[in-house]
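hey so i finaly got around to running the thing on Dihydroorotate dehydrogenase B (NAD(+)), catalytic subunit from Methanofollis liminatans DSM 4140. pasting the sequence first so u can double check i didnt mess up the copy paste, my clipboard has been acting weird all day
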Amino acid sequence: MPASPHTLKTTVGTLSLDNPFILASGPPTASGDQIRHAFRLGWGGAVTKTIVPDSMEITDVSPRFAAWKGEDTGLLGFENIELLSKRDLACWTGEIAAIKKEYPDRVLIASIMASPDPAEWRDLASAVVDAGADAVELNVSCPHGMPERGVGAALGQHPHLVRGVTHAVRDAVEVPLVVKLTPNVTDILPVAEAAVAGGADILAAINTVQCLMGIDLDTLEPLPSVAGAGTYGGYSGPAVKPIGLRIVSQIARELPVPIMGVGGVSRWQDAAEYIAVGASAVQVCTAVMWRGAGIVRGMNEGLAGYLAERGLSGPGALRGLALPRIGTHEALSRDASSRARAEHPERCTVCGRCVTACRDGGSGAISIGERAVAIDEGRCDGCGLCALVCPEGVMVVRRG
Ligand SMILES: Cc1cc2nc3c(=O)[nH]c(=O)nc-3n(C[C@H](O)[C@H](O)[C@H](O)COP(=O)(O)O)c2cc1C
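ok and heres what it spat out for the 3d tokens, dont ask me to read them lol
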């Protein structure tokens, strides 16, 4: 079934979007020209690089990125130790006004961060809203550099501080208020609840996960190395998607608040997964840095095709459909047991990976017989490891 051009229209609270793809705050939204370029390519919205008061000193280090790449050089995980926008407030208010004039139908969200003083947050929020921003996103979640100054994730890890700053901005502006949450907490719910209690209309989850990408074993320098030294940074890209999905679903199960899913979205399938666990839209940063803002075309096409194929009228119809299937471990069935099967023996190259994995990490149920794998049904406990390590798709795990 061909996808209707209207299929992707969606809403996040009172914000209406042409499609659920929003550029996240970061290098792809560091300037007005980059945001215009993204809007020309078809992004439904954009969140500016985080704007700070002119009094807040922002000096970046270099290099400030490190990447964990797969064997085919595809990106697995990405670390950054970048700070916030280096452009002053007057530059941003001018850009916001100009972009909204050129692209009135796209959603432009201003990300802000100020010192712990609520008055600074209020002033900044009022300035970007007066310039024409459709919504304000509070960055209480940057995990590097800023926490050392008592802001960013240092605020976002404490529910009472999140509530206080959200409440201060809520009093100052009428537009929808987004609070962007840090994943660097043990339990997301107290912080999410505090943001909502403070007046947040929308939650965005997640900002980056605090990390240390690695050590250069020749020099023993941490990565990225800034003149031989390193620090803890923010982890993003495909590797953090499972953390983002967990957090978005945990919020969606408990709170009736619209959510923007962020973290590791690089294909339309990732967006569909976030929506299925309760997100109303997704934000994307690292995938755009890696492959360019043009990826939105394929993501729009792919998501529209998927929705049409499933007979869903739009992203809103997919929202939360997977949630009833996510519950406690205790509630999982112990009756339906699964077993390994060699379902496509003709593809088997007898590489032995399933045998080794099952012997050293499973129940020792697989052996190589007459140039084919043999499964001891009595020993197999259906853990699923063999299907995951098999490079040819021979091994599968089926119920019963
Ligand atoms: C280099 C870089 C800079 C970022 N800068 C900001 C920022 O200024 N404000 C903010 O709220 N998030 C910032 N982020 C976090 C992203 O908006 C996003 O939450 C995170 O990277 C996870 O999404 P992703 O996997 O699509 O990148 C930055 C991320 C990266 C990689």
